[in-house]
Structures are given as structure tokens and as C-alpha cells.
Design goal:
The chain has about 250 residues and is of the alpha/beta class. The chain folds into 2 domains: about 160 residues, MoaB/Mog-like domain (Molybdenum Cofactor Biosythetic Enzyme, Chain A, 3-Layer(aba) Sandwich), CATH 3.40.980; about 80 residues, Alpha-Beta Plaits. The protein is about 35% helix and about 25% strand. The chain contains 9 helices and 12 strands. The strands form 3 sheets. The chain has a 6-stranded mixed β-sheet, sandwiched between helices. α2 packs parallel to α7. It is elongated. The protein starts with 6 loop residues before the first strand and ends with a strand.
Length: about 250
């Protein structure tokens, strides 16, 4: 898989995540894997095991420029409907993947049954993602990479996709500027001008109420080193010209 995008999306699927029976372990893991490769997380969606909901959001994800990972719902139980939803979202038939069938036949032998065969029933044209834990593969179709919900399987499978797809972006850095005593309303015009001048720098503004009634605003900059350095210099100059106190963190 090759991509011009330096971002990935993430879908975490399962009623057990939404109702609190299990905590999500995928977003933090994927974010760390992406950061190590100078890639970013574009979005995360938490979705139920509901066909209409999954088809709607998968169609949206397939239409995005970023590749995405989908975790969960590709087992053999009745609530595992992600593969069916992916096929429906792409208007593709499901079919038993030939290489997948060879893998699970060797894996299960005489214990192979219809439920286990469904483990490799994927949208037509899908490619396999190897599973180092129990050999039952996930699949890639279009810009989506579908892996199990179990973290011990999903996370090395994500690593495989990232490591075999030339998925490395440009190096990026962060810079934080603290404005003691400031209010966002006092610098709103400055922020609006900044995002027009530096559209390629990710920008955030976080106001804080401090103990004792004090205030501060924390500005965050994220992007390639040369652009963040330019943005940092811009803020230092404009804040100094307005006599607004600041600290670089």
C-alpha cells in the first residue's frame, strides 16, 4: 500500500467499547506507531455493531484521501459484521479469499467449519494482512485496512501495514507558547491572521483558569521544523510588538 497522505484514520468497532465492557486500546497504540513514522492521526470513530451505521461511516471513510485502520468485527460470531458492511459500502460481493482459505485450512484442519470459513470471506479483490498470533488474516480493500478487535493481534498487524507500505511522512515538531494572564478574546484577531498566513501549521489555543483566579492561554504549533520555526518567530515578533508577555515552553 502506498499513499500520498501523511495521515491515517481509525475506526474502532464494537458494542463492548461503547457500553463500557471493554476500554479502547487501539487509538493510543496507533497514535504512537504513527508518531514514530512522522505520520498523524486524522480521525477516530467509535462505532456499534450495527449494519446501517457501519455502512454509512465506511462509505465516508472509503471516500476520504487518508488510508484508515478498522479494528473489530471480523471474527466468526453473529455480531461480527464489519466485512459485510465493508463489502456493502463498496458495492462489492463477498467471496472466500483463495489464499485465506489455504491458510485457515492448514490452521484448523479437521476442525474447519462454516463459521471458520467465514473468517476469510472478504470483499472481492481484498488483499490479506498477515496475523502473527493465530494466522487468521485481516484484509485490505481500497484505502481501508481491517484487523481484529483483539489488541494483541491488531497492533502487530497495523505495524505490518505501516512497515510494508512505505508509510513515512516528513519530520514534524511541536512548539508551545504560554501567554500568562491572557484571554483568548484579547488575541482572537492575531490568531485569525496567523492561520491565514500559516495554513500548513497545525495550531491550537487552550485557555486555562488557574487557582486563585488567574488566567493563561497556551498556544500550540505543530508541523515541519522549518514551518514551525517560522511560525514561532512570527508569534514572538507580533507578541513583542503588542507588549503581550509570553514564555516559550
Amino acid at each position: 500500500m502506498r499513499t500520498e497522505s501523511d495521515k491515517f484514520g481509525l475506526l474502532v468497532i464494537g458494542n463492548e467499547i461503547l457500553d463500557g465492557r471493554r476500554d479502547d486500546a487501539h487509538m493510543r497504540s496507533l497514535r504512537a506507531k504513527l508518531n514514530a513514522r512522522a505520520l498523524d492521526l486524522a480521525y477516530t470513530l467509535y462505532l456499534p455493531d450495527d449494519m446501517e451505521t457501519l455502512v454509512f461511516h465506511l462509505r465516508w471513510a472509503f471516500a476520504q484521501p487518508e488510508p484508515f485502520f478498522s479494528c473489530g468485527g471480523i471474527g466468526g460470531t453473529p455480531d461480527d459484521i464489519t466485512r459485510q458492511a465493508a463489502a456493502k459500502a463498496l458495492d462489492l460481493p463477498l467471496e472466500f479469499h483463495p489464499e485465506g482459505m489455504r491458510i485457515i485450512t492448514a490452521q484448523f484442519g479437521a476442525r474447519l467449519n462454516d463459521a471458520r470459513r467465514r473468517l476469510v470471506e472478504f470483499p472481492q479483490g481484498a488483499a490479506l494482512i498477515p496475523n502473527p498470533v493465530n494466522r487468521v488474516p485481516g484484509f485490505t480493500i481500497h484505502n481501508g485496512h481491517f484487523v481484529p478487535g483483539f489488541p494483541e493481534m491488531a497492533h502487530p498487524m497495523m505495524e505490518h501495514v505501516l512497515d510494508t507500505g512505505n508509510c513515512c511522512g516528513k519530520k514534524k515538531i511541536r512548539q508551545t507558547i504560554l501567554l500568562p494572564g491572557a484571554r483568548e478574546g484579547d488575541i482572537e484577531e492575531l490568531m485569525e491572521t496567523f492561520v491565514e498566513i500559516f495554513p500548513d501549521v497545525s495550531f491550537s489555543s487552550l485557555p486555562h483558569l488557574l487557582a486563585g483566579g488567574g488566567r493563561e492561554v497556551v498556544l500550540g504549533l505543530y508541523g515541519t521544523p522549518e514551518r514551525v520555526e517560522a511560525a514561532d518567530a512570527y508569534w514572538k515578533a507580533i507578541l513583542s510588538s503588542r507588549n503581550i508577555p509570553f514564555q516559550i515552553q
